Amino acid sequence: MKKIVTSLIAVFCFVTLYSQDLIVTTNRDSINCKVTKVDQDNIYYTSAGKENVIELIRVKTCLYNYYKQPRSVALPVAEEEPVQNVMESKNDEVYKRFRFAVSGGPSFRTYKVGDGLATVMSDYYRNLRSGFYLGGDATYFFSSTKGAGIKLSLYKASESIDDVWIIYNGAVISGKSSDDITLIYAGPSYTSHLLEIGDRSTLYFAASVGYIYYQNELYRVDYYKITGGAIGFALDFSYDFIVTDYLSLGLQLSLVNGTISKISQTDSQGQVTNYYWGEGVTRIDIGFG
Predict the structure, then answer these.
(1) pLDDT at 180 over 60
(2) CA–CA distance, 182 with 179 (Å, rounded to integer)
């Protein structure tokens, strides 16, 4: 008899301490289970004696010890205890730490072509405003909505025309005119996770202050190389559509702003001349990546 009573007490303690968790998916399905493990990408759980796994991206909420009540009919029923240990799949406990983005596409400089130019040269400088860019961003998120990193971008544009009449060494001569422009931007960035659009889309905003390097290899009958630099800033809006846990497709709209105020000019004989210059290098990038 004593052994029977001891066994019943042991069963009562086991059943009373038994607890069950609740997983609510993004589709609003409820899973009554026992969570056994949580890592950066998945939740592992046992349900109906079977081991299962679900991706965190599909989880809206995970409630630990949601059901905590005895299962014995013969013994007194304990009152349900309050919900404990709430975990949101997108809170500061579970999120991707790193975001690496590569993008590229058309880019447009915003300078205005001056009046008084011949039609052929006016068209030349308008065409030179259009180019393309390649960019890269690396971000470390120190919370689910805020991160810091580095931004890099390369802009290229070129244009050429033959038999253009220009003034060269005091004489009017005909020759080739061409520009091959390179702009490189590099700087630290701050990124904010603005909002989620549905279950698989995210909108980011990033701001950066950095350095713009300017280079133009040009011909005005003779060859010249012009270089300069300026402090600038960049603003990005990025839309990511999640394809897998580690890959997204994205669209990025960027503004890079700066003004070159001083340049160095090197001619074909290697002679260097420094002088002040006022050229805006502001541009708008439309990137895919």
Answers:
(1) yes
(2) 10
